[in-house]
């Protein structure tokens, strides 16, 4: 959900290696990992919601809720 580069830029760079690794491999919350096409993943890249939103307006609220949930989960 949250690209690793964006997480790094927003604070994960200060975490211990073990915590960064746990975040990168987190399967403990449904919202942490969302399957998308390779094309969609390339368009999103390492952008946050201020820079990229899903093409479908119907998905915006869910995307934002998942993003915020993941950010809060990892602090």
From TrEMBL:
- Name the source's superkingdom: Bacteria
InterPro entries, alphabetized: GmrSD_C
Can you give the residue ranges of the GmrSD restriction endonucleases C-terminal domain?
A: 2-75
A Pfam family it matches: GmrSD_C
Q: What is this protein called?
A: GmrSD restriction endonucleases C-terminal domain-containing protein
Source organism per UniProt:
Streptomyces olivaceiscleroticus
Specify the taxonomic lineage: Bacteria, Bacillati, Actinomycetota, Actinomycetes, Kitasatosporales
């Amino acid at each position: 959900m949250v690209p690793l580069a964006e997480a790094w830029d927003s604070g994960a760079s200060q975490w211990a290696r073990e915590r960064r690794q746990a975040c990168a491999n987190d399967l403990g919350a449904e919202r942490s990992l969302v399957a998308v096409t390779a094309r969609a993943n390339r368009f999103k890249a390492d952008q946050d919601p201020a820079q990229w939103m899903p093409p479908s307006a119907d998905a915006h609220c869910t995307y934002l809720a998942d993003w915020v949930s993941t950010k809060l989960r990892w602090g």
